[in-house]
Design a protein that fits this description.
By secondary structure, the protein is mostly helical. The chain is about 65% helix and about 0% strand.
Length: about 80
């Protein structure tokens, strides 16, 4: 940590990075500034600042898994 700042390194798909850079350029903001904005907003609001959705197939699969796990606990008296 230098001057109260830490580095964070993350690997991205090169095409995704190009698309994000193009968006940031069009919006007139540096990629680093956009990432900082995301982090600061997340910490301030204590939530991801946009809606995250799973596909219905993933949700159905998770619900089924929860039912099976719950049934196992009930069956064994846990």
């Amino acid at each position: 940590m230098e001057n109260g700042k830490d580095n964070y390194i993350s690997l991205f798909d090169s095409d995704l990075k190009k698309e994000f850079k193009a968006f940031c350029d069009a919006a007139g903001i540096r990629m680093t500034a956009a990432i900082h904005l995301f982090i600061k907003t997340t910490v301030r609001e204590q939530r991801i600042p946009f809606e995250i959705r799973a596909s219905s197939r993933k949700i159905e699969s998770r619900i089924f898994t929860l039912i099976v796990v719950r049934s196992s606990f009930v069956e064994f008296g846990a």
